[in-house]
Amino acid sequence: MNAYVADTHALYWYLTAGAQLGAHALAAIREGEQGEARIYIPCIVLAELYYVNVKYGRPLDFRQEYERLAMSGQFTFVDFRAADVVQFDALSVIPEMHDRIIAGVAYDLKIPCLTRDPAIVNSGLIQTVW
């Protein structure tokens, strides 16, 4: 079974059917819908999703979407642990802290990240899909 880590924009554009979502990222999420992939969602992605949703006028019912994601078999939430901070040095080419947390999940699990974020893509630390 394939596995991926979703970044905030990938998840937001999936949930809102946004045309900005890359074709390969959408295909990966669709694999999950078919039971052929697991999509990991770092808890920081949920926090950022909340703020992006507010910023864009709340197109999503956040609580409803959270519950749908939590009940879905394709998505798994990943907590941020104090020990995760230790790997920040290994991810230092990624300047933004939230991006390091997201990339860190992919780095730890050795799986691709669904992102087009240039800092993550250009880091060379993890495989990315967009």
Task: Give a verbal description of the structure.
Helices cover 47% and strands 15% of the residues. It has 130 residues and is of the alpha/beta class. The chain has a single domain, classed as Rossmann fold. Strand 4, helix 6 and strand 5 (128-129) form a beta-alpha-beta unit. The relative contact order is 0.21.
Strand order of the largest sheet: 3-2-1-4-5
Q: Mind describing the biggest β-sheet?
A: 5 strands, parallel
Rg over CA atoms, rounded to whole Å, is: 14 Å
* CATH homologous superfamily title: 5'-nuclease
Taken together, the total number of domains comes to 1
Q: Whole-number average pLDDT?
A: 96
General shape: globular
Number of helices: 6
> If classified by CATH, what would the architecture be?
3-Layer(aba) Sandwich
CATH class: Alpha Beta
Q: Distance between the terminal alpha carbons, to the nearest Å?
A: 19 Å
Strand content: 5-15%
Residue stretches low in confidence (pLDDT < 50, at least 5 long) are none
Question: What structural class results from the helix and strand content?
Answer: alpha/beta
Strand tally: 5
Helix content percent band: 40-55%
CATH topology: Rossmann fold
Summarize the structure.
This protein has helices at residues 8-15, 23-33, 43-55, 62-71, 97-109, 118-123; strands at 2-6, 37-42, 75-78, 113-114, 128-129.
Topology (elements, then pairings):
Blueprint: E1 2-6, H1 8-15, H2 23-33, E2 37-42, H3 43-55, H4 62-71, E3 75-78, H5 97-109, E4 113-114, H6 118-123, E5 128-129
Parallel strand pairs: 1-2, 1-4, 2-3, 4-5
Helix pairs in contact: 1-3
